[in-house]
Amino acid sequence: MRPVSARLQVFLMTPFRVTKGKGFMVDEIQCGRLSVPPKHIIDALENLVSAERRQKMARVLDARLASIALGVEDLANSFNGAACLRTAESLGIQDVVAAELRHEYPMPELPKNPVTSGVNMYAHRWVDLHRVPSSAELVAWAHKRDMSIVGTSPHAQKTIADIDVERPLLVLFGNERDGIRDETAAACNDVFRLPMYGFTESFNVTVSVAMTLSNLVERRRERLASDDRTGDLSEERKNYLLARWYLATVRRSDLIVERFVNRVR
User: C or N: which end of the chain has fewer Cβ atoms within 10 Å?
Assistant: First the structure.
């Protein structure tokens, strides 16, 4: 797997552990030479983030979803990889899980293609991208979080309207050419298709991702609205993400946090 720069690890690594059925248990975030609780990072950097930016982050966090995650299996095209990240982030999905079998997920840290760079718009800074080396580990990731796995297939009997959004979902898409592998499809709780009425037999994967997630996310938010909510992240995970986003926003944030921690000890 391609090495990731130390700074980008703040955005792409997920320094929390997960206990099945109990959500996210955040410990500490690696910041420079220190492992720091999220609250210390927030306290150290909050006044260095503009009020407008803080308000935007708060609105985004309130709308973030942990109950729907995007799963992709062995994507090969860098444009598709970047577009999937941006779609998920724009719709408020926090977790993207990528099974890397023959192909590594296109990492957006140093985009060589200006078209891909524009499509991505640094979406990787705001989501948790979980890169795993096998489909079995992707399935395990979902099961550890008590998520049902729903896969896409143009030949499925069920349509997207049949998918229950009351349960947490990992929505899985396959390789551009081959689709979801047979072994992975067998691990899905449901397989569905997007209705089509023309001669074409399938959508491009980025179109499928956008149409599917838009439908499921909208229906999930309708359920949350009955409880006067737009998102479903725990307060603990919101604090973790806010700390990580502050680190992404403030220049030389690791040095500022280190000085703060040394003062409060």
Answer: C
* 38 contact partners, CB below 8 Å, separation of at least 6: 26, 28, 29, 239, 240, 242, 243, 244
169-219: pLDDT as tens digits: 999 998 877 778 888 889 999 999 999 899 887 888 999 999 999 999 999
pLDDT of 142-171, one tens digit each? 999 999 999 998 889 999 999 999 999 999
Residue 86, CB half-sphere, CA atoms under 13 Å: how many? Answer: 17
- Residue closest to 31 by CA, chosen among 256, 265, 264, 262: 256
Domains observed in the chain: 65-232 (3.40.1280.10)
CA angle 230, 231, 233 (to 5 degrees): 155
